[in-house]
Specification:
The structure holds 2 protein chains of 2 kinds. By secondary structure, chain A is mainly β. Chain A has no helices and 11 strands. In chain A, the strands form 2 sheets. In chain A, strands 2, 4, 5, 6, 9, 10 and 11 form a 7-stranded mixed beta sheet that branches. In chain A, strands 1-3-8-7 form a 4-stranded antiparallel beta sheet, with no helix packed on it. By secondary structure, chain B is mostly beta strands. In chain B, strands 2, 5, 6, 10, 11 and 12 form a 6-stranded mixed beta sheet that branches. Chain B has a 4-stranded antiparallel beta sheet with strand order 3-9-8-7, with no helix packed on it. Chain B has a two-stranded antiparallel sheet with strand order 1-4. Classes of the chains: A mainly beta, B mainly beta.
Chain lengths: 115, 114
């Protein structure tokens, strides 16, 4: 089974701190994604990466950056955490076969609270 | 631009009755469509997908979905609901472009009462 592992289930950070959320997948997937989930808004894409060292902005990249130095690992960085970044963060991965019909596999989520 | 609409925030159904969770989409060209389920404090689990072919797609846990191109819909269905089906359901779409972005709807909470 595909496994996508996020390093923390729950995090509490202070305003202004630099926060790292880590995600590792074990299926050699080319694509990795970071979403945030807020009630009533569904999942919104922050960043995604289709290859090592490659990244593209999603719909809400402001206040975030990402790093993909190895294929299996995709990190989300909050440069200076703010209270409006309190949310559930979900990492996902998918393969890049010839078809775009491959589903994404999700981690268990990190619930981040910024105080 | 791609988009997905789930018009119902919550669907209530009695155990044993059929259920439908609605989804409509907007995408250029032919779509790839997905349904995911999320249980409390968990990540999303894949249920089923439509790529091409038969408009009725069968997935995990007895769920199925019907693709309707003329109505741009992809409603999730189950003939007989279980209390354990109570969860948050997300519809998602990916267009046939060069992007691998998966766009999600806002989610529908399904409550199955005993």
């Amino acid at each position: 089974d595909v496994k996508v592992t996020q390093s923390s289930r729950y995090l509490v950070k202070r305003t202004g701190e630099k926060v790292f959320l880590e995600c590792v997948q074990d299926m050699d997937h080319e694509n990795m994604f970071w979403y945030r989930q807020d009630p009533g808004l569904g999942l919104r894409l922050i960043y995604f990466s289709y290859d090592v060292k490659m990244k593209e902005k999603g719909d809400i990249p402001e206040g975030y950056s990402v790093s993909r130095e190895k294929k299996e690992r995709f990190s989300l960085i909050l440069e200076s955490a703010s209270t409006n970044q309190t949310s559930m963060y979900l990492c996902a991965s998918s393969t890049s076969t010839a078809s775009h019909g491959t589903e994404a596999f999700f981690g268990q989520g990190t619930r981040l609270t910024v105080v | 631009a791609q988009s997905v609409a789930q018009p119902e925030d919550q669907v209530n159904v009695a155990e044993g009755n059929p259920l439908t969770v609605k989804c409509t989409y907007s995408v250029s060209g032919n779509p790839y469509l997905f349904w995911y389920v999320q249980y409390p404090n968990r990540g999303l689990q894949f249920l089923l997908k439509y790529i091409t072919g038969d408009n009725l797609v069968k997935g995990s846990y007895g769920f199925e979905a019907e693709f309707n191109k003329s109505q741009t819909s992809f409603h999730l269905k189950k003939p007989s609901a279980l209390v354990s089906d109570s969860a948050l359901y997300f519809c998602a779409v990916r267009g046939m472009d060069s992007s691998y972005k998966l766009i999600f709807g806002s989610g529908t909470r399904l409550l199955v009462r005993p």
